[in-house]
Amino acid sequence: MEVEVDVIEFRVPIENNKTLFVWNIQPIFSEAFIYESIWNIFCKFGPLYLVKVCPNAAVVEPGFYALVKYFSAAQASKAQRATHGRGFFQNSPLKVKLSTKQYPNFLHNSKPLSHSKCQDLANHYLGFNGWSTHIVTLKDISNCDNAGRLSTTPGDPQEITLKYGCIMEVTFPQHGLSCRGVGVAEETVEGTGTDIVLLKRGKLQRWARDKAVVDAFEKVLLLVLGNGKVVVECRMERDNVLQDEDLEGLIKVNDIPWSQFDPDGQEEDEDIPWDLSVNM
User: Per the database record, which ranges form the RRM domain (predicted)?
Assistant: First the structure.
């Protein structure tokens, strides 16, 4: 017997078959009301990555359209079939179609989810008690660069560079699996006052932990079966497998400044162009 399997990744969904375009929304409602209504309608079919509501272009009749992103292609397809042609919160029917435009090649590699989105997705499919995290190691690596020299900031002597590295382990007890991730957070601090430095150290430690958790979740696949059962798989690379005794004094990281990431948990894909092409 053939079993349907939906694969869920902890990455920003950019595939066409996960994005819905909703239009023919009447202009008598506020954007806030439309956003809440659209979210409440479509979240019933599965967890949503994002909902965005926009006014129609000036050359089109007044009104709004919305874009809805799912993590699951199967759930997006089910939602499209169930909602197209129904009015819900308005008299005229909503029009709902799957996106059809092809993304450029440079957009095919999507970004990892934010820490909060990883938590939300894991909680939805696994439950609050279905996974846990713990710190394997958290190191202050401010004093050394790759060559083991003192890290200094050129120019202003009142500026110091702080850097923390962290290895986190995400465990799935009901599945007997775990995987590890690495995170590095770095920032230059203006001024050497004790209060300023202590505050920044605390933030960098949190950011490094969050980034390590995100890195661990990138290795996780959730296989959602047709009967609703969820199976967890971890993609392990040979170079990433380290014994605990090998971790003392070691954090193997790609040295990436935290400024390239979003420590405040903003939406990840504001710079990804929205796709308005559909089969009419």
Answer: 18-101
